[in-house]
From TrEMBL:
Lineage: Bacteria, Bacillati, Actinomycetota, Actinomycetes, Mycobacteriales
Protein name: Putative spermidine/putrescine transport system substrate-binding protein
Domain of life the protein comes from: Bacteria
One example of a Gene Ontology biological process annotation: thiamine transport
Keywords for the protein's UniProt record, in alphabetical order: Signal
Start and end residues of each stretch annotated as Disordered: 99-121
Gene3D superfamilies: Periplasmic binding protein-like II
CC terms in the record's Gene Ontology section: outer membrane-bounded periplasmic space
Record has Chloroplast as a keyword: no
Signal peptide: 1-26
Keyword Hydrolase appears in the UniProt entry: no
Stored Pfam families: SBP_bac_6
Bias type Polar residues, positions: 99-118
GO molecular function: thiamine binding; thiamine pyrophosphate binding
Length: 379
């Protein structure tokens, strides 16, 4: 998602794009992505539900015939994707090709555009809101079997996109290297000079976008007015406190980025290797967000792409997400019917009071403001 992923996922990664820019002679072969005819008579690339394949058994058979699935921008320690990928591959005997795990949401779209028609193109996307909603023409509508379990607010009515998991924006810090952070305003103090990192570029990365929004709320802004957040980062940069380094587990462990603004589940994953790492979800102005799952309409493995969606929204897939510290989109339904693992359910973060989740319209307006003002503020 690092749009971000892990403290890496939704970063604006330039170098990995070289993977897709090789000489023509080395380019992957062209791929006819239509896929086999389904039981309903449409091609696999046109299937809108498992019913087109005659049910799940037919979909599994078609996906196994393709034999592979291409995913992109899914670090193994982001939302437990390492375990998710392994479980899917083992369950269905399908090889999963995981490209550019450190890429941003925008990089996912760029890769699909650059690789269109080739066997290496991404089959599926996992995107931040702003990038997802700007590129819906690239998505193939598909409704998983559990589609009706997903609240209307978290999906497109035709299945063009569906939210998959979410969390809260947070501030992670190494209590062994910096004073405790009690709120956003602390970050302007001299003790944090050269120490505050943001997960990516907010014009490209969902995590960074939500981080600026969280800061904006703390400064009197709103989902309709992100300008105070940009102004705060300008002050942070002028004070020398803003660290223009994309945080990774390595930079956190080494102490290079001792304060990181990122999703709570991404920051929380650092505590396993670094016990002094502490995570704060500012209680006064919590910001929540979900990532967007979609199928590339030009997927080289269209049946496998659809089976991947079925797996992600199954009880098994949703529980695997929850084990990664994220809130799966079907969590409420699964809690009610007793299918959400009690251990992981108990570990899901709970925030009291109102939570800000920007609407698509608010995200679009804020993204426009960021594109026009962010670089000048922190440059």
């Amino acid at each position: 998602m690092n749009s971000s992923r892990r403290t890496r996922r939704l970063l604006a990664a330039a170098a990995p794009l070289l993977l897709f820019a090789g000489a023509v002679g080395c380019a992957p072969p062209e791929k006819d992505n239509a896929g086999a005819q389904t039981e309903s008579g449409v091609s696999a690339a046109e299937a809108t539900s498992a019913r087109d394949f005659g049910g799940m058994e037919g979909l599994v058979e078609a996906a196994r015939a393709e034999g592979e699935l291409n995913v992109i921008a899914l670090p193994p320690d982001w939302a437990n994707y390492g375990a998710v990928i392994s479980a899917f591959s083992e369950k269905y005997s399908i090889k999963v090709n995981s490209a550019q795990p450190d890429a941003s949401s925008q990089d996912e779209i760029n890769a699909a555009t650059q690789q269109k028609g080739r066997s290496s193109a991404p089959d599926v996307f996992d995107l931040g809101q702003s990038v997802a909603l700007s590129n819906t023409a690239m998505f193939a509508p598909y409704k998983v079997e559990n589609f009706d379990d997903i609240p209307a607010a978290f999906k497109d009515a035709d299945g063009t996109w569906v939210n998959d998991y979410g969390g809260y924006m947070s501030i992670g810090f190494d209590s062994a290297k910096v004073p405790p952070v009690t709120g956003v305003d602390d970050l302007l103090k001299p003790e944090y000079q050269g120490k505050v990192a943001l997960n990516g570029d907010p014009t490209q990365a969902g995590a960074a976008f939500s981080g600026v929004l969280m800061v904006a709320l703390s400064q009197g802004g709103s989902a309709d007015d992100i300008a105070p957040g940009v102004e705060f980062f300008r002050k942070l940069a002028d004070a020398g406190n803003f660290l223009p380094v994309d945080p990774t587990p390595a930079t956190i462990e080494s102490g290079q980025t001792p304060v990181v603004i990122d999703w709570n589940y991404t920051n929380a994953s650092q505590t396993e290797k670094l016990p002094s790492w502490t995570v704060l979800v500012p209680p006064q102005n919590p910001v929540a967000g979900y990532y967007y799952q979609a199928i590339n309409k030009d997927a080289p493995h269209p049946a496998a792409a659809r089976l991947w969606q079925e797996f992600l929204y199954s009880d098994e897939g949703q529980n695997l997400y929850a084990q990664g510290g994220v809130r799966p989109v079907r969590a409420d339904t699964m809690l009610t019917d007793g299918t959400l693992d009690p251990a992981v359910a108990a570990a899901l973060p709970v925030v009291d009071g109102p939570v800000t989740v920007p609407t698509p319209q608010q995200t679009e307006a804020a993204s426009k403001y960021l594109s026009e003002n962010w670089a000048a503020a922190v440059g």
